[in-house]
Amino acid sequence: MVWLMNTQFWKSKTGLLLQILAVIFPPVLFLNSPYLLLGLVASVILAWGMLWLRNNTWKDVGFRKPDHMGRLVLITLIATAILFPLSTFAIQAIKAFTGQTPNLEAFEAIRGNLHALAAGLVVAWIFGAFLEEFLFRGFLLNTFHELLSKEGNPKWVAWTGAVVGTSVLVGVGHLYQGIVGMMGTGLIAVGFSVIYLINQRNLWSCILAHGLYNTVAFVLVYNGMVLYP
């Protein structure tokens, strides 16, 4: 069992692959159950432990004070303002192609209910903006990149593969929204990954973008608007 504490093993291709499988197991286990958020919490705790085994911290994957706060906020706001209409258009295209609509029943309680909106925003910021970004952008995106880099791929190929792999996992994690919701959230995840990368891999950028995106979506639902007409 000495290998468990072997930093070099956890930095090897086998070790990195095992880490990816380990952290995605809890959400997969609770994928179609009310305990999905519990699985997300377990995954973030596991990811924290895996980073420790590699002699890394959350700071190493982007949870640090930005060098230029104004620049980060500005880029994040602009990117989010672009991402929302683009993702809406993409989901409409997916709807037209599949003939299906996303299943958004989980958010119906927010419609016209201020207390539900407030509770929903708290959950969205804690679990969506923070925990999902810690797991998917902070841990998985960087781990995928490190794994693909060990195959001798050019840097841009490794990052592209990491973005695609992470976004597919995000989509699967939204199985409860149906095939359109899965594909849509996967595409939105690509947007958050791009925001993370253009902001020099600072987690605050995608945390803010994710939180703002969810806030706008929830407020629209609260006001009775159809997100993807």
Word description of this protein:
By secondary structure, this protein is mostly helical. It has a domain at 67-222. The chain has eight helices and no strands. It has helices at 7-10, 13-29, 36-53, 69-98, 114-149, 155-173, 178-198, 203-222. 36% of the residues are buried.
Major pleated sheet: none
Helix content: over 70%
- How much β-strand is present in the residues? under 5%
The number of strands is 0
Please tell me what the overall shape is: globular
Q: How much is the radius of gyration in Å? A: 18 Å
- Uncertain stretches of 5 or more adjacent residues: none
Mean pLDDT: 91
Content-based structural category: mainly alpha
Distance between the termini: 55 Å
Short description:
The protein is built from eight helices and no strands. By secondary structure, the chain is mostly helical.
Key traits:
229 residues; mainly alpha
Topology diagram in text:
Layout lengths: L6 H4 L2 H17 L6 H18 L15 H30 L15 H36 L5 H19 L4 H21 L4 H20 L7
Helix pairs in contact: 2-3, 2-5, 3-5, 4-7, 4-8, 5-6, 5-8, 6-7, 7-8
